[in-house]
Amino acid sequence: MLRALVQERLRESLQSLGLGEITPEVTVPDKPEFGDFSSNLAFVLKPRMPGTPPRQIAEKIVARLDKSPFAKVEVVGPGFINFFLQPETVQHALREILNQEYHYGRLEMGQGQRALVEFVSANPTGPLTIGHCRQAVLGDVICRLLENAGYDVTREYYYNDAGRQMKLLGESVRARYLELLGQPVPFPDEGYHGEYIREIAREIQKRHGSNWAEASVEPFKEFAEAELFSEIKRTLSRLFRLPPERVFDIYYNETWLYAHDTQNALASVTNAQVLEWLRELGFAYEKDGAIWFKATALGRPQDRVLVRSHTGEPTYRLPDMAYHANKLLRGFDLIVDIFGADHQDTYQDVLAAVRALWEGGKLPKECNPHKIRVLIHQWVNLLRGGQPVKMSKRMATFVTIDELIDEIKSTVELDPALDTEQTREDFSVNVVRYFLLMRSADSHVNFDLDLAKKQSKDNPVYYVMYAYTRIRSIFDKSKGSVGAVGFQALRLPEELALIKKLDEFPQIVRDATEHLAPHFLAVYVHELAGIFHDFYEKHRVLDEANPEVTQARLALCYGVQIVLERAFALLGLKAPERM
RNA sequence: GCGCCCGUAGCUCAGUUGGACAGAGCAGCGGUUUCCUAAACCGCAGGUCGUGCGUUCGAGUCGCACCGGGCGCACCA
Question: Could you tell me the domains of chain A?
Answer without folding.
Answer: 2-85 (3.30.1360.70), 164-238 (no CATH), 459-571 (1.10.730.10)
